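Re: that chain you flagged

S.,

Sorry for the slow reply, it's been a week of failed gels. I finally had a moment to sit down with the sequence you sent. For the record, here it is as I used it:
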Amino acid sequence: MLYIVLRDRGCNIIVLNVHAPSEEKSDDSKDSFYEDLEHLNHFSKYHMKSLEGDFNAKVGRENIFKPSVGSDSNDNGVRIVNFATSKSLAVKSMMFPH
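Prediction finished late last night. Pasting the structure tokens below so you have them in one place:
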């Protein structure tokens, strides 16, 4: 996890860049990753935060994820949506050609 704080007179912007464990990794390593993300709470609630990176997630069209796009979700997709929901974040999917 890497972050940078951009300071301005009006507000600070915190940009976090992360790389989540891949789907085949153990649940312990995934749990550890999301525990590390909990450190978002140590930043002031008045700072603007942008969480970006590769979450190795596939977020589908299940009713609980609407209006997300995609087909079927994987375990990482469920984890990131649940994390984002608990932190009042939005999951914005961007597809890049591989």
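What I noticed first: The first strand starts at residue 2 and ends at 6.

Talk soon,
D.
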